Each structure stands twice: as structure tokens, then as C-alpha cells.
């Protein structure tokens, strides 16, 4: 991919308003400038800088404005993608942002963390014609560009709020699902309180996804916008402990939305998992992000000073852990994944970035046990090599261990990033909210209604560990249903 | 922000702090804890609730200065406030009338043992409390414990107060007296709980211990607090903090407590500078 120099060439391109599709297909994909790998692993600042004005317009001119837009079909919240791209091409960034915000209130976040290659960019006709999703119109980067543009314009105008209804809605959890519902329900004129267990809002966006991928200032800004709309944020409130859901109703709330996420880390149940130096990815990332352990001792929360780190897993969480470990000063970071690279669930961009930064991928390998030294610290991890066998239930070829291929990897830190299951606090304290065998809350998909009257749920607590955009998508459905329920009183 | 109502040093290293927290005070039960943060870049530390009044809307903590955060906390005065305070966390002590309950508190562990003794007494149990400390100064809250118990025994390592010896010696004495003990609840340093557990296991006396592991969120999200109980991994913040002592892997737990020893020392030294 070659970057087209901004300047005369760009201006020329711009002038041609009526490019033929063939001409459009010849315009090269625009690449965001990034911090150099060697430099960026020594800081926690965001890796890509974002498009320049010219780049954004050029990239926008690659869009064919398809009538039956496959990109929109691929977007979980059906953003009118051709329309917003057209606005960018015309330099009307304000309308571009508004178009996105009609269906997605967090574009600066989604532009950065959505798996576009699996969603909007997957069906893109440009990408298909050129033979790869990496050549598709860079919809996510354009989304990010206009969202950042809006932020650079100072305070966003809070949306209009309808007259007060006197109805109150309690939202439990301030991740993307909770924040989405807060906005949509507040707009309708209802009073909204968000209860968050931690001392800061944002859920995974704050404690999990690292600063170098999603600057925390962006998340805080979105929360400030909600506050400006009159949403009340209450931190340090663990619902289930301080108040049960029933007590919220007794205290005068008319409806509740449960968005407590999938914050229960899974371990591998292998020997040595409780040794010193073994972390769940959640703990490692929370220490680093939420508690800013990367600045210890200027900040107070410590984290291991690791030299050799093994991360187990192949998703975004694993990539984030591995790249965070590098930034904390590790010399060798191994990513141990039991399948091959094509099966990795992580966003492609994260895999590229991790490789560039020097994360060592140990593919088709699986940890068997963690071995400690005489003081109870991690010393080694025993791994076994795998090969791909017959397809399993998920359609992916099942990895099978190769007998006799065991070997020892010298490490002082292990990070387990094999997934999260759902947080049981609410279901445990509200038995009339039904859950499935994995502990996820059961909802009616069209409304996100749970089995308990007045209670809706969405995001990872319903989906299991999923994505930001799916959490938001469920939030939108729930918000519409909550507004309807409060207006009609019909369950 | 929660306002500090009172602060008082009980010993040079241990202080009592009463904090305005009406919602927590209304909800908390014996055995539960809070997590707090004292500064914007501060860490989150768990502390067991020692006392509280739902009517007056406060909770009380008894804290031993062991690291930077407890030191910073000790420097706050009445009228000041706590930046972040979350609770009540963890499962409450299971309170039931079982007959005779021995409540063991070691050092600052006496503070969280106090509401347990109170609740056990209220449930109709005969409560015998054993308070242990290295020396006389470290035996705190004797008066309150006396009010909550039918009998109080005191042990000090150096014999400066009560009987010379360890809390286990006091338990042994009760057993030798022929007393039928239905339950032991022990709160204190891990090593004390371990030896209490070893002793009561020998006599097959059901025993509960309250664990105070390293924590971050306190909601079951991170696993920092995990400990092996009956060879299953449990999260102290949500599955505990109380567990069947005879199932707890105390050695593993004590090892994990040392995870940040080096960094904690550094932080303390920096603070002194
Ligand atoms: C490290 C990491 C990287 C990720 N990367 C990506 C990515 O690149 N792209 C992507 O799309 N997705 C990614 N995900 C997944 C994505 O972050 C989640 O799917 C999404 O955040 C789910 O949103 P949510 O609102 O359902 O829950 P969460 O974001 O989990 O928020 C739940 C909130 O509820 C709070 N809470 C829990 N229990 C209670 C209670 N009892 N009372 C009060 N509050 C409570 C929690 O503290 C938390 O703040 C990643 C996840 C992780 C962990
Ligand atoms: S402290 Fe994080 S899970 Fe217990």
C-alpha cells in the first residue's frame, strides 16, 4: 500500500467530481501515519495518528456509492455509510458526523476498535474488485477521522432533550451498552442514573482496552457529553451489594437496564496457575490502564517487572496484553495460541501492530503447566505443539496435540487471555432474572426484555464476551423498548 | 467523596477511622469489607468493616500502617474525605446459632472479629473471644470485645498482658478444659489463621477464616485475589472473604501476598523522602 502524497495530486483528484468507477478503483488506499514500532513500544500514546484532511477526502473518493450498499448491511447498527462518506468527500464533516451519530453515538471509539474487516469492510465492492478486504474503502478510519474532527471543534452541542416525563431509569454498568442506553433514554426526557462499580466510567473501554489503542480522554469526553445531557453518573456502586435491583425499583426507578459485561476471567485450570507472576488479562490490563501501573512509582499500583512474558490466547485481549507487556519493558513477549494465525479472533490491525512491535507468535502451541521456582514465582511454562485436525463445531479445524513435542519456555510472567464469562453479581442477587447455562442473561431479542418486569439487559452480559458495537447495538434496541415501555406501561 | 468523622491512633501503628457512608452503613453485615482509594493516582486497597451505625450513617475501619496507601490514609484527619469508597463487598459471615463459638482475633484482626462476635452473640451463641497480639499495646478493642462476648481470653507473644503465648495456646486450653466448641472463627495474620486451622482440624472443629488477599476491583473481574480452597480456585472478593479454614491453601496464599513486596518497599521509601 502506497501513501498518496497530499498536495497537488490530491487537489487534482479532488477536482474530478465525476470519476468513473474504474477511476475510483485506481485510487490507492490511504494509510494512516503511525508512530514507529521502535519508538511506540517505549510510550503508551496512541499508535496511528489518523488521516489528514486530504487523505480523508481521497479515501472518501474511493467509495462507489453503491445503491445496495453491502457495507450498511454489514454494520451491526446500520450506519448510512455511503452518505457519511459522501459528506466527507464534499468536506461537509459536520453532516458526516451527524449521519453516523444517527445510529452510533460513539464513533470516535468504534472507528478505533470495531472489527471492520469482519463487518462493513467485508462486503465492500471496492475491496472485492481489488481482491481483498484490506483494499476496501477504509470506512473505520473515515469514521474515526470525522469523529476526531468533531472533537477538535470543541464542545459538542448536547442533543435536544424532550420535556421531563418524571420517569426514572437505572442503568447498571457504564460500558458501551450502558452509555448507549443512557443517551437514548435521556433524550426521551426520562431521568437517568448510571451505577458503576468502579471509580471510573467506560467499562472495558477504560479498564481493558489500552491507551495506545483507545485514548482514555475520548471515553471521558463521551461521558462528559452524557453528563451535559443531564445523565447522573454514580461511581463506586456495586449493584447487588449496595442496592439490589428490587431496591432500585423500591427507590422509585421505573425501569432498569443491566449492562454489567463479561467481567469474569477464565483460567486454564492447569498446574501453577496461582503462582506469583500469573495474571488474568483483566488484572494485568486493569493494573496497567485503569490504575496506570505503567507510571509506578509515580502512581501507586504496582505491576510485575517482567523480562520474559507468555500470553495465552489469540483475541484482542491477548494482543492488548502482549503489547502492554512490551511497553512495560519486557524483553521477550511470546503469544502462545493453539490454532494458526488465520483463526485468530483479534482485529487484523492489532495482529499487524503486535508483529511489528516484536511480539513473538508461537502458533499451534498450547500451555500444559506452569512451573515455579522455590519462592513460588513463575519460572517456566511447558508447552506442546499442535496440528490442525478435523473441523470442530465452530467450523474451524480442531487443534490436536502432537505427542512428544512438549518443551519448556523460560518466562517470569504469564498472562491468561483465553476469555471472560459473565459477571454473576446481578443474577445471583436477582433470582427472577433468568440466565442460561453460561450465566448470560436471557432476553427477548427484539426488545432486550429479561424475564423480570421492568428489567432489560444487553451487551456482554447477554452476548458473552463480544464487541463494542454489538453491545451498542443491543443498547439501542433496549433503549427503544424502554422508551416504549415507559410511554405505554405495557410489558 | 466520603467525609471522615473521626480519626484516632490506637497504637503508633494502628488507627481507627470513622467515615460517613450512610448507604454502606445501612447495608453492611459482619464479615464484609470495603475498597478505598485516597489519591487520584492511588491504588485500591481492601479493608474489613470493623463497626458501623445504620442510624447515624457511618462505618468504622481499624487500620494498621503497612504500606504507602495505609500510611497516606493515616495522614488524613477528621473533616477530610476519602476519594473513593466502595462497598459493602464480599459475602457476609454466615450467622447461626450453633452453640459455642470461639472468635479469634489477632492484631488488627480483632477489629473485624468484633462485628462477628456481636452477631454471633445476638444469634444466641455462647461467644468466647480470644484476642492475641505481639505485646500489650497490640491487643486492641478489649472493652468492646468484652461487651460482645461471654468470656474473653488474651494472649501476648511476650507475656506483657494476658497469658504468654499464641492464640492457639488459648484454644488448646479451652479444649483441654473439656469445652465443646461448635465453631471457630479466626481473623488475623495468615500465619495465625494457618496454625489455628491446623489445630482445629486435629480436633475436627469447624473453622472459618476471613482472608485478606491482594485485590484490585473487588467485584470478581480480575482474579488478583484468587486462592486455592479445596483445590478449587476461588475469588476472595466475591466467593469470600470467609472460607472453611480446613480447605484453604494458606501457604499458596501467603506466597501470593508477597507478589509486590519489592515495589511496596520502594513506594514506602519514596514516601519517606
Ligand atoms: C482487553 C479487551 C480488548 C477488547 N478489544 C475490543 C476491540 O478491539 N473491539 C471490540 O469491538 N471489542 C473489544 N473488546 C470487547 C468489548 O470491549 C466488549 O464487548 C464491550 O465493552 C462490552 O460492553 P458492555 O457495555 O456490555 O460491558 P463492559 O464494557 O464490560 O462494561 C460493564 C461495566 O459494568 C460494571 N459492572 C459490572 N457489574 C456491576 C454491578 N454489579 N454494579 C455496577 N456496575 C457493574 C463494570 O465495572 C463495567 O464498567 C475488548 C475487550 C477486552 C477485555
Ligand atoms: S479483586 Fe479482582 S477479582 Fe477479586
Walk me through the structure.
The complex is a heterodimer of chains A (491) and B (273). With 491 residues, chain A is of the alpha/beta class. Chain A has three domains: 8-152, Alpha-helical ferredoxin (Fumarate Reductase Iron-sulfur Protein, Chain B, domain 2); 168-263 and 422-488, 3-Layer(bba) Sandwich (FAD/NAD(P)-binding domain), CATH 3.50.50; 267-419, FAD/NAD(P)-binding domain, CATH 3.50.50.60. Chain A has helices at residues 8-15, 21-26, 37-40, 53-61, 70-74, 81-89, 93-101, 107-113, 125-130, 139-152, 176-187, 204-207, 216-228, 245-250, 281-290, 316-327, 348-357, 425-429, 460-463, 468-488, and strands at 33-34, 48-50, 168-172, 191-195, 232-234, 255-258, 264-265, 278-280, 308-312, 332-337, 360-363, 365-372, 378-391, 397-401, 407-410, 413-416, 420-421, 455-457. In chain A, β13 and β14 (397-401) form a beta hairpin. The longest helix of chain A is centred in the last third of the chain and has 21 residues, at 468-488. Mean pLDDT of chain A is 92; it is low at 1-8. With 273 residues, chain B is an alpha/beta fold. Chain B has two domains: 2-89, Translation factors (Elongation Factor Tu (Ef-tu), domain 3, Beta Barrel); 100-256, Rossmann fold. Helices cover 29% and strands 32% of the residues of chain B. Chain B is built from nine helices and 17 strands. Chain B has helices at residues 22-27, 68-74, 110-122, 142-148, 167-176, 190-202, 236-239, 250-257, 261-272; strands spanning 2-11, 14-20, 33-37, 45-48, 51-53, 58-64, 81-82, 84-89, 100-106, 126-133, 151-156, 163-164, 183-187, 207-210, 226-229, 232-235, 242-244. In chain B, strands 12-11-10-9-13-14-17 form a seven-stranded mixed β-sheet, with helices on both faces. A five-stranded antiparallel β-sheet of chain B has the order 5-6-2-1-7. In chain B, strands 4-3-8 form a three-stranded antiparallel β-sheet. In chain B, α3 (110-122) links the parallel β9 and β10. The mean pLDDT of chain B is 94. Chain A binds chain B through residues 197-199, 207, 235-238, 241-243, 263-265, 267, 269, 273-277, 279-280, 282-283, 286-287, 291-292, 295-302, 304-305, 375-376, 423-425, and chain B through 23-24, 27, 37, 39, 41-44, 68-69, 83-89, 216-224, 226-228, 233, 238, 252, 255-256, 258-260, 263-264, 266-267, 270. The complex binds flavin-adenine dinucleotide and FE2/S2 (inorganic) cluster (FES). Flavin-adenine dinucleotide is lined by residues 113-114, 172-178, 195-198, 203-204, 208-209, 237-240, 259-261, 263, 285, 316-317, 320, 347, 423, 425-426, 459-461, 466-469, 471 of chain A.
